[in-house]
UniProtKB/TrEMBL annotation:
<protein>
    <recommendedName>
        <fullName>Ribonuclease PH</fullName>
        <ecNumber>2.7.7.56</ecNumber>
    </recommendedName>
</protein>
<dbReference type="GO" id="GO:0009022">
    <property type="term" value="F:tRNA nucleotidyltransferase activity"/>
</dbReference>
<keyword id="KW-0819">tRNA processing</keyword>
<dbReference type="InterPro" id="IPR050080">
    <property type="entry name" value="RNase_PH"/>
</dbReference>
<feature type="binding site">
    <location>
        <begin position="124"/>
        <end position="126"/>
    </location>
    <ligand>
        <name>phosphate</name>
    </ligand>
</feature>
<dbReference type="InterPro" id="IPR001247">
    <property type="entry name" value="ExoRNase_PH_dom1"/>
</dbReference>
<feature type="domain" description="Exoribonuclease phosphorolytic">
    <location>
        <begin position="10"/>
        <end position="140"/>
    </location>
</feature>
<dbReference type="Pfam" id="PF03725">
    <property type="entry name" value="RNase_PH_C"/>
</dbReference>
<keyword id="KW-0808">Transferase</keyword>
<comment type="similarity">
    <text>Belongs to the RNase PH family.</text>
</comment>
<keyword id="KW-0698">rRNA processing</keyword>
<dbReference type="InterPro" id="IPR027408">
    <property type="entry name" value="PNPase/RNase_PH_dom_sf"/>
</dbReference>
<keyword id="KW-0694">RNA-binding</keyword>
<dbReference type="InterPro" id="IPR002381">
    <property type="entry name" value="RNase_PH_bac-type"/>
</dbReference>
<dbReference type="Pfam" id="PF01138">
    <property type="entry name" value="RNase_PH"/>
</dbReference>
<feature type="domain" description="Exoribonuclease phosphorolytic">
    <location>
        <begin position="157"/>
        <end position="224"/>
    </location>
</feature>
<dbReference type="InterPro" id="IPR015847">
    <property type="entry name" value="ExoRNase_PH_dom2"/>
</dbReference>
Amino acid sequence: MRPSARQTDEMRAVSIEVGFTKHAEGSCLIKMGETHVLCTASLEARVPPFLKNSGLGWVTAEYGMLPRATHTRMRRESAAGKQSGRTQEIQRLIGRSLRAGVDRVALGERQITVDCDVIQADGGTRCAAITGGWIALRLAVNKLMKTGEVISDPLLDPVSAISCGIYAGQPVLDLDYPEDSEAGVDANFVMTGSGKLIEVQMSAEGSTFSREQMNALMDLAEKGSAELTAAQLAAVA
């Protein structure tokens, strides 16, 4: 039934390569099927002005897609002189999601910026960015703890994200592009490793959906999130 021949509750293959770049304090290349995202975490001994002298740390994110990450070349947003509304929405989502799993007091008055660059897109780029972004964040925090700059672990719980949707009338897990472009309902779930919700984005893309269908998507998301958490912990072990 699915274009990929996957079962309705079957995710795409996930692979994670940590330490992918030389200079970033934390980095990984995450692949969810044919969606590939490079995530890096950079430490800075400063915080935004509104947090100065507060004792609180900050985690923020930036997101972008390379020109040929998609089927046809996209113009670089730097060449256009501004970010698209989609880019701004996604990077704010990534930042909110990652901060939800951080004890900002334990982090101390420093900032970690997580950059998520989509090398190849085939659906679910924001979910891959959040999932890989947490791994980069974890590796960067590990360095702070190793040097003794941070005593208590500020990362409270792993954070991951997964897409679900109603495709051809059936609830399915982890949409690729052919499914995403045809789905009647599209949803993204951001969850912690302990199964708590951080954010849910769900909308009808051509057909309405019932409470029962919403519950079915939630069940799929819980399964996918548990698998992603296991992959994250194995990658940073």
